[in-house]
Design a protein that fits this description.
Blueprint lengths: L1 E6 L6 E6 L2 E4 L11 H6 L2 H9 L7 E3 L4 E3 L8 E5 L3 H6 L9 E5 L4 E2 L5 E3 L6 E2 L2 E7 L15 E8 L2 E2 H4 L6 H4 L5 E8 L1 H4 L6 E6 L2 E7 L7 H11 L7 E3 L21 E6 L3 E9 L10
Parallel strand pairs: 6-17, 8-14, 9-19
Antiparallel strand pairs: 1-2, 1-5, 1-14, 2-3, 3-4, 6-7, 10-13, 11-12, 11-17, 12-14, 15-16, 15-18, 18-19
């Protein structure tokens, strides 16, 4: 099953089910489901089964070509990302494989959808791409053993962990350099575990324009998806709709000599086997205007 968030002329993101070249509105009253993707995912397996059953019902459908696509979870409660989790990426950055999982957060306001522009902030000229497999949490969970981790995974999608490297490297927490607006493109769909299968050997590739920059598989992960969930939930609960980015392969712009960062006019396209492709144009941002000031 493939889920997505979309909007019509009113601009309100709503949860949908992909059916061929159409999207079924899961917020339609006939489905009995909530109005947002995070609320649907909070229902766990029951919510997913009700979404599946909606395909046989009378809920409104729209042509995919006639709607705007958003990130599968347009309002995630958190975006958590693991660093240095592909062996070849660790090597290209001149580092040693980590003994422990190395986590940082991206502000939830950085979320963007398929086709949305990646905005280069005027304060950075070292903006980089990172194609990543992401998993999305279903029901609220804590203290989840690795053996049962996939019971709390609603599905999988693609994230571009866009990084302003100069801002990232100024702070050991990475948060500032990872959280500029539009720097978490996500999508295009949320593919449920029963359709995707084993996430441990998926081909993952990133192109900048027509040049293949990253070409790997998730078999190169140091810590697997189940290990990540067990580790994170040891410390705190994961809320429905939380996006967990699982690390990036070798081939990031910072790994080249000289570095090859993004420029206005570029397009970044990421594909992951079994999920699809996420494409975003790169544009130059202007001087920011103050918000919330008289």
């Amino acid at each position: 099953m493939r889920l997505a968030s979309f909007s019509l002329a009113d601009g309100r993101p709503r949860p949908g089910l992909i059916v061929g070249d159409e999207i079924l509105d899961l917020s339609d009253p006939t489905t009995g489901l909530p109005a947002t993707m995070a609320e649907v995912l909070a229902l766990g397996s029951d919510g997913l089964e009700r979404a599946r059953a909606a395909a046989a019902g009378a809920a409104a459908r729209h042509a995919l070509s006639a709607v705007r696509r958003h990130a599968p979870v347009p309002d995630p409660p958190a975006i958590l990302a693991i660093g240095m989790n592909y062996r070849a990426h660790v090597a290209e950055m001149g580092r040693e494989p980590p003994e422990w999982q190395y986590w940082f957060n991206k502000q939830r306001t950085a979320i963007a959808g398929p086709g949305d522009p990646i905005v280069l902030p005027s304060v950075s000229d070292m903006v980089d791409y990172e194609g990543e497999l992401a998993l999305v949490i279903g029901p609220r969970c804590q203290h989840v053993p690795a053996a049962r981790a996939f019971e709390v995974v609603a599905g999988f999608t693609i994230v571009n962990d866009v990084s302003a490297r100069d801002w990232q490297w100024r702070s050991p927490t990475f948060t500032m350099g990872k959280s500029f607006d539009t720097h978490a493109p996500c999508g295009p769909e949320l593919v449920t575990s029963d359709e995707l299968g084993d996430p441990g050997s998926l081909a993952i590739r990133t192109w900048v324009n027509d040049e293949l920059r990253q070409d790997s598989t998730t078999a190169d992960l140091i810590f697997g998806c189940a290990e990540m969930i067990e580790y994170l939930t040891t410390a705190f609960p994961l809320e429905p709709g939380t996006i967990i980015a699982t690390g990036t392969p070798a081939g990031v712009g910072a790994g080249f000599d000289p570095p090859r960062f993004l420029a206005a006019g570029d397009t970044v396209r990421i594909t992951i086997e079994g999920i699809g492709g996420l494409s975003n144009p790169v544009v130059q941002g202007g001087p920011p205007a103050p918000i919330g000031l008289d």
